[in-house]
Input
Amino acid sequence: MAADIRLLDERVAAVRDDVIGWRRHLHQHPELSFQEFRTSEFVRQTLAAFGPFEISSPTPTSVVARLTGAATSGGGQVLALRADMDALPVQEENQFEFASRQPGVMHACGHDGHTAMLLGAARVLCELRHLWAGEVRFIFQHAEELFPGGAEELVRAGVMDGVDFVLGAHLWAPLECGYIGLAAGPLMAAPDVFSITVVGQGGHAGYPHQTVDSIAIAAQIITNLQHVVSRQANPLQPLVVSVTKVAAGTADNIIPGSAEIVGTVRSFDPSLRDQVPVWMERIVKGITEAHGGSFRFDYRRGYRPVVNEPELTERLRAIWAQAFGADRVVEVEPSMGGEDFSAYQQKAPGTFFYVGARNEAKGIAHPHHHPRFTVDEDALAVGVKAFVSAALELLAPRG
Ligand code: NI
Output
């Protein structure tokens, strides 16, 4: 490794307490997607105190900071590092002194930690500017949790222009603190959503023959939608079709005129992703017509799947095996969750990785989005070191 690991550990240890302090401050003052005004202001002010960052705000609540390396024999490459900053509409149930002061809003996914880790990496990389060449672009992204997401907006604003590689991290509750989770290729699915309205003809429940029963039709649709995964898609391709909301009716003696079915589809393969709504609509159409009803079918595509570029991912695996020890870098399986980090991966080779945040001995084991979710704060230094070691290697001076 070009940079001395002892120096790296020393610098990361020196920012450790500040990173924890920033995380706690952000945790106390969470803001929802697209409303990260105070958060982004905090990021701007904290960065400005570190050194010569070129700071901009491509959207009202995002921050992009560019820093140039001071090594002379550089290849002039650009590495983007991304953190998301938004919180969730969850009422926190933790009793920390730094628990959320915002009723009904909580950093229940760990994005407070992501922001703090990236600030820590920015400070260390600024201090070690003489060891790297080119540019590090720190992207503090708004609105990961709420479709259409902040990433797409930032890409459209040009934040990925000229970028050679992009990295993003998620503090990860399923993974033990001290470990980094990595996977080449597909990591997170494309999360699409659908809404089906079955239109029948309402009437008296005692006279069903005078109605078109939207509930009975909806029940058939829900059952038949299971065939998309079990009978129509290739069983070797991951796919989820989940109905998550059914709404109809008002009373025990009325057949309602319409019923609503809402849910999500998760997939990786682009052609399968295109095919699923076609299959679904065919089922909905066939069943409603068979029973004399009609329908509205609304299908909305969400984020693209997160697919890690294999070559970059293998380079990172080698870098982190040196920085942390090979046994600390573990292979993770793809999951059917979604992430708008995928938007950056359309523009440059990118890797999204997990920073283990679980510690059962400390009682830190609740899943993401839970009212008692938290992270082992020891994980924050791991994240800082992962970002910094990757930057020092990917942007190492040549010759
Ligand atoms: Ni998250």
Summary: The domain at 190-300 is CATH 3.30.70.360 (Alpha-Beta Plaits). The chain has two domains: 2-187+305-394, 190-300. Residues 109, 111, 144, 170 surround nickel (II) ion (CB under 6 Å). Residues 5-28 form the longest helix (24 residues).
